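FAQ: What does the model actually see?

It sees only this:
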Amino acid sequence: MSLDHQPRTIIDWFRYRIAHTPDRAALYVKSDGQYNERTWADVGSLVLRAAHALDQWGVSAGDRVVLMSENRVEWIVCDLALQYLSAIHVPLHARLPASQVAEQILHSGAMWVIVSGPEQLAKLQATRDRLPPDLPCLSFDDFDGLSPQRPIRNWSQWLPPRLDSAEADRLNRHADQHVTPQTLATILYTSGTSGCPKGVVLSQGNLAANAQATWPATGEREDDLKMGVLPLSHIFARACDLYIWIVCGNRLALAESRESVLEACQLIRPTWINSVPYFYDQLYQQVANLADPGLRLRQLLGGRMRYCQVGGAAIGKDTFDFFWKHGVPLYPGYGLTEASPVVSVSSRDRVCWGTVGQPPAGIQVRLANDGEILTRGPHVMQGYWQDQAATDQAIRDGWLHTGDLGAWNERGLLEIRGRKKELIVTATGQKIQPSRLETLLVQDPSIEQAFVTGDARGFPIALIFPAGSTAVDSSTTDPQWLQRRIRQRIDACLAELASHERIRRFALLPRPLSIEYGELTPKASLRRSQIAINWATLLKSIEHSRTERES
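And it is asked to produce this:
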């Protein structure tokens, strides 16, 4: 088939790929320890079969369909199949606790739920008293009647082995008529770093426009092979891995888990990767002290890596410099879910540490009087689901107020200065951005995680989880020695800062901050409000303690 107009939706672009490059390699699916090639025609056939099955299941235009799954090919297939039917895809993070799963299912008004397997189904079972008893469920993995309390179908029984041409034509006609740039495509629940998650509503036009603008700005090529390592339920991976893959027409492979990324790189030898600072920091610490660290770094990533995009948080200078020095360039970018998500990207001739590049074509960015970053364009969300007040607060006169503070450097590149709501103000009126301190602290090999907040007088205090430590009271570690060691490392990390920015007091965490306890988002950003709740007693003890230097 061919389109009679310029692609304006994700489904337009997907059908364009199938029509123009049907036999080109598109997706690599792992089975029996190897990645096997699937062409655009193969992927298109699978998506149409899934769309047919969902249609037969009763999914209609505008229906909200929740998907709870780890990264796998079925995630991609279901996402595109739902878009074919002009349904609204509501992906939930696979590591979300059961209570939040129930809240988001209810808030979205989901009529259908798709799960990957037993672990995700257990969350529905654990909260079944809060969910409609007849909420239908589909599972990628077979259950053989394991869950009699809830109507459930198995993927293997649900997906037809083939689809006749008449049914394929009918589904394509539906897409022609009902999938427009204005069609609502997804509700994405933000990670809520500073408050309760909200449902961000994005349209087909939002997603397609952002992917079309971002692709040429980064320089991604048709011969690139991307390794997907971040959860597709998060907008960073969904847009920059999945949708740019479709718009650009290159190749994509998915790592099975966070732990298997480097193994997957050895098998597939990718040229492109999108990830968050934590991933690159861990690689840096793993190879920095080895003989010929640059060679080892390149080998770990498969030997062909030409572009590493980093987003979600600030990257430390040591990590940034190390990657560039050894021929594995890091390109920082900036975005947020409400912007579909990309607002600015670095490119080969416009990149330097501490900046996130420039806005792609068609994306407007300006700074408010207080330094808040505002953006306007076709990438700005439709609003927050069932929350008009929050929508009106976020979007004013067409400009999305991001809540992030920024500045333009002398080269016209955007710098991110932190979150407006996270500023620590000392008793003397001096302002401190905690994220800046945290970025500096986790650069040290002795510090795996750092959370900085202010005490009653506004001075910065911190919670630290040491690298390589599972508990402060470990039988193999002297707690007092560890406390002194971390004190020394904190002072060294922050030595160049002004005196009011340095950490006065800190405490060691007995366990790492985690997604399971609601303390981290899926891209490893800190959920500050939840950390403050979970560790309120420890934070209070820090405020009332005195260090030797204060005595």
